[in-house]
Amino acid sequence: MIIIKLGGSAITDKSKEYTPRMEVITRTAEQVSRIKDVILVHGGGSFGHPLAKEYELHKGFKDESQLKGVSRTRYSMTVLNQLVVSALIEKGVPAVSVQPSALFVCKSKRISHFFLEPIHYLLDLKCVPVLYGDVVTDAKMGFCILSGDQIVSFLAEKVHPEKVIFGLDKDGLYDKDPAFEDASLIREITFADLASISAGETGDVTSGMKGKLSEIVQMKGITEVNLINLMKDNTLSRAVKGDVEGTRIR
Predict the structure, then answer these.
(1) How many domains does the chain have?
(2) Bridge partners (DSSP) listed for residue 1
(3) Is 149 exposed, middle or buried (0-12, 13-18, 19+ CB in 10 A)?
């Protein structure tokens, strides 16, 4: 079984609010149709981040004016989720949307309570659960943003996948911000070395990638994680077969 994270920056245009990249979503759905036993999790991109920022949802509950933001963000994420699920169904994938806010409760932004039976039963039925970053209840903060990356990290520990694949809008992990011309792609790295980068001891990565790496190093019992460019043809299919055009972590 494989867990695949579809990055919000890959499946949406983050420079334009509520703008999906349907060609990427459709191409990804075609590749997923050839994979057996999979859980999908996708990010929010331009459907989630602008609203979360506007209403400062990352700070938790401060006043009632934020509640509209909770509603709008939740709704917007279901819209993106349905676009992803619809594309999967169109390609013959038995995809089933699973609402994270009904499965997880957090405490200080980390998952503290969970109900995973729906995931296990869907997998037993050979369905493909499709989760996403969401606004969830938080025992200390009222609510918080539960990222798709944290969901992937948590599920990886509970369902023990063969590998985890992160689909990005770039080729993988670089030794510095890939915006710099002299940045080099890291083809292979150990979990131990990755922990050093995540902690800021070595390397110079973007804040978004640093958060992702932080979740990856917390995965327990995982033997391999791949970082690939989801915007390129067939990178997902190849990674599933072991031909990783990106970064391999093990």
Answers:
(1) 1
(2) none
(3) buried
Torsion sign, CA atoms 150, 121, 97, 135 = negative
* Three-state DSSP state, 111: strand
- State how far the Cα of 237 lies from the Cα of 250, in Å rounded to an integer: 19
Domain span at 40: 2-249
Helix residue spans in the chain (DSSP H): 8-11, 22-32, 49-54, 67-90, 117-124, 148-159, 191-198, 207-217, 235-240
Q: Are 63 and 2 spatial neighbours (Cβ–Cβ below 8 Å)?
A: no
213-241: buried (b, 16+ CB within 10 Å) or exposed (e) per residue? bbbbbbbeebebbbbbbbbbeebbbbbbe
Q: Is 105 helix (H, G, I), strand (E, B) or coil?
A: strand
pTM of the model: 0.95
Residues 6+ apart with CB under 8 A from 160: 1, 221
Residue 6's SS3 state is strand
- The domain that contains 75 carries what CATH number? 3.40.1160.10
- What token pair was written down for 149? 């990356």
Tell the residue number behind the tokens 């209840």, with chain if given. Answer: 137
State the Cα–Cα distance between residues 72 and 48, nearest whole angstrom.
9
Mind listing the pLDDT tens digit for each residue in 107-118?
A: 999 999 999 999
Q: Which residues contact 97 (CB under 8 A, 6 or more apart)?
A: 78, 81, 82, 85, 130
Q: Residues 121-169: pLDDT tens digits?
A: 999 999 999 999 999 999 999 999 999 999 999 999 999 999 999 999 9
Measured at the alpha carbon of residue 239, what is the angle toward residues 97 and 232, in degrees to the nearest 5?
A: 80
Cα torsion 176, 189, 160, 164: sign: positive
